[in-house]
Design a protein that fits this description.
This protein is α+β, with helices and mostly antiparallel strands and about 240 residues long. It is built from 3 helices and 12 strands.
């Protein structure tokens, strides 16, 4: 009998605690997570929608300030690839981590003091140390002694250049031309101006990487193969 009584007592003591008496450690934490956002919605007129719109605007501002910038093509100087009214996205971090503009890149730069006030978009033809001349017996540009075939992107009917020139690009500078050579005011037209028609790398805003508008014309902007076999200047190496 004593054994039976002891067994019954153990059964009573092992009964589970009713659910309503259990503590809920997750409750206070969940309330604290929503308290701050709830207060913001109370302070801002329009509540949650206004907060979401403000957050989106801040993200877009940071994106366009530090990463990507939209640019509208103002002229036909880069036809046929870039047409008047096209919108391109300019990659502003393309040259910020040790990289430099390369031959064939399409860049947007500030032309103040050299090309005129405002931003311009052109193709990089020569980088620091390059010797760029026009033209060989077939009418093609020569870069560091090698003739280049630019027919894949030049405007139909245009020659590589109607103006003769023979320049050496200073270090830290670029020699730039439009793809529509007959309608482009570029390095050739400013050879006698301050800076000799060269664009300082520090004036480059970024590299145009995508056409985003109109949608039917949207595409990525790749570096062409025309300059791939251009040798490096004799006095340095490594920027093809």
């Amino acid at each position: 009998m004593d054994t039976e009584a002891q067994h019954t007592e153990r059964d009573r003591s092992s009964r589970p605690v009713p659910a309503e008496h259990r503590s809920d450690p997750g409750g206070p934490e969940e309330r604290s997570r929503s308290a701050f956002s709830g207060r913001i919605r109370e302070w801002v007129p329009g509540g949650r929608i206004t907060v979401a719109l403000l957050a989106t605007m801040v993200c877009l501002l940071l994106l366009t300030t530090f990463v990507l910038r939209p640019f509208q093509i103002p002229s036909g100087s880069m036809e046929p690839g870039l047409r008047i009214g096209d919108r391109v996205l300019v990659n502003k971090v393309a040259y910020r981590f040790g990289s430099a503009p390369r031959r064939g890149d399409i860049v947007v730069f500030d032309g103040t003091g050299r090309f005129g006030a405002g931003d311009y978009i052109k193709r990089v033809v020569g980088v620091g140390g390059d010797r760029v001349t026009c033209c060989d017996r077939d009418g093609r540009l020569r870069i560091n002694g090698r003739s280049t075939d630019e027919s894949a992107f030049l405007h139909p009917g245009d020659s590589p250049s109607d103006a003769r020139f023979d320049v050496v690009v200073p270090d830290g500078s670029l020699f730039v031309l439009g793809d529509h050579r007959a309608a482009s005011s570029d390095s050739r037209d400013h050879l006698g101006s301050p800076g000799g028609g060269m664009v300082p790398v520090d004036s480059v805003i970024g590299r145009a990487d995508w056409i985003v508008w109109p949608f039917g014309h949207a595409t990525g902007l790749d570096r062409p193969d025309a300059y791939a076999r251009v040798p490096e200047p004799a006095d340095r190496g490594g920027n093809g």
